[in-house]
Amino acid sequence: MGNYSEAKLTPMVMMTCILAATGGLMFGYDVGVSGGVTAMAPFLKKFFPEVYRRTVLEKGLDSNYCKYDNQGLQLFTSSLYLSGLTATFFASYTTSNFGRRPTMFIAGIFFISGVVLNAAAQNLLMLILGRLLLGCGVGFANQVVPVFLSEIAPSRIRGALNIRFQLNITIGILFANLVNYCTNRIKGGWGWRVSLGLAGIPAVFLIVGAVLVVETPNSLIERGLLLEGKDVLRKIRGSDNIEPEFLELVEASRVAKEVKHPFRNLLKRRNRPQLLISIALQIFQQFTGINAIMFYAPVLFNTLGFKNDASLYSAVITGAVNVLATFVSIYSVDKIGRRKLLLEGGLQMWVSQVIISIIVGIKVTDHSDDLSKGYAVFVVIMVCIFVSSFAWSLGPLAWLIPSETFPLETRSAGQSVTVCVNLLFTFVIGQAFLSILCHFKYGIFLFFSGWVFIMSFFVYFLVPETKNIPIEEMSHRVWKQHWLWKRFIEDDDHDYVADQSNQ
Fold this sequence. Notes:
Layout: H1 11-20, H2 22-37, H3 41-47, H4 49-57, H5 71-97, H6 100-119, H7 124-152, H8 158-183, H9 191-197, H10 200-212, H11 217-222, H12 226-237, H13 243-257, H14 262-266, H15 272-287, H16 290-295, H17 297-303, H18 308-332, H19 338-363, H20 373-392, H21 394-405, H22 408-440, H23 443-462, H24 474-477, H25 485-502
Helix pairs in contact: 1-7, 1-8, 2-7, 2-8, 2-10, 3-4, 5-6, 5-7, 5-22, 6-7, 6-9, 6-10, 7-8, 7-22, 8-9, 8-18, 8-21, 15-21, 15-22, 15-23, 17-18, 18-20, 19-20, 19-23, 20-21, 21-22
InterPro entries: MFS_dom, MFS_STP/MST-like_plant, MFS_sugar_transport-like, MFS_trans_sf, STP/PLT_plant, Sugar/inositol_transpt, Sugar_transporter_CS
Pfam families: Sugar_tr
Main location: membrane
């Protein structure tokens, strides 16, 4: 089969991808906004008086590492991921049966509802309910957007277009940090409401996008709308020579239809390599400590002795680095390849975290946060080096690799499992980070760097290169060439041939 090199980057593809990737903008804003809001005294005073007492009224009495350790406060951050985890399974059903566009629309509606509840919250219950609705939006958006982008994009630039989703997550985090920095200065103590309310802007974009974009050819063909599918394929490829790709999609769809239980099919031997790699990458993505740093950047910098404005300011700097480094990934992922980026990023993350733990271990004790200006700047630089390496490696690639390696018959189910595992471990880290910080102290960075080390080994031996390979050709060009995974594919192919001949 060909590599469809005629496929052009048409204006329709660009427009579609920009609108669809706003799902990432919403997710990023929610990740970024919670950390800044939980560092604001008026917010703590209203909803978490216990933490307010420890951080503002009784400074110095509690251990520096433990002053934010509060299960309710952690639940505010992590509840979003718990509901996202549940919602992703419903999203898998709507993605397959009703299409990619309606699923994006539903995500936007959930987001708007959550934003309204959060911005108007009068008590902790309203606050948590709002976060749960936002989580449903995250579950639907994260399930559908990477699949949508992989299906619309021509294979030679699939990596770069798919990473737009991750780029928008980083822009969302940066935007949230800037908003928090500004709203923290609002007199009267209601700035946090503005921070939480502005999450509605990307949600509106996603709803508008869901109305305007085209459905993917894969989705139309999957639901039996062959002529519409062919028409859309012609438009998005900007060429009349689409017959080979169209026939491959029809064939992939026919095979997919024979699969009655996609989740059960995921466990079949030939699908295990993709499943194992997808799950592992999501676990590693969370256990590098990136979300701990992104959720709680202001809280973390406060703990290390930065004053309130300085900690929000530092969070803005790390957010900006995150965005810039994601551009590196967009420009290099289809040239350098996935593996090299992951391995280089792993080394850089490991080194920076070990250095941070040494500085913090020497300079920040339980009751003294004697970080001189020089050391403080150095910690921020190291955090930036860590964040940048994550942003051009594991950040985007943990989403890209699963979305391009699952075959059509298990793609929706595979993406669901990917998102579910990601949200489960995001929830675990979000719920436990402040408690781990309290107990491990500076050792928390060594804990995370250990996971980075394991990840690098995993990538080196078990993650194959998938750049520039059409999704339909992964099986024989990637898995059958791999020293370990080929055993799974060949065995299963023999079984499959035997099944066919017996029928």
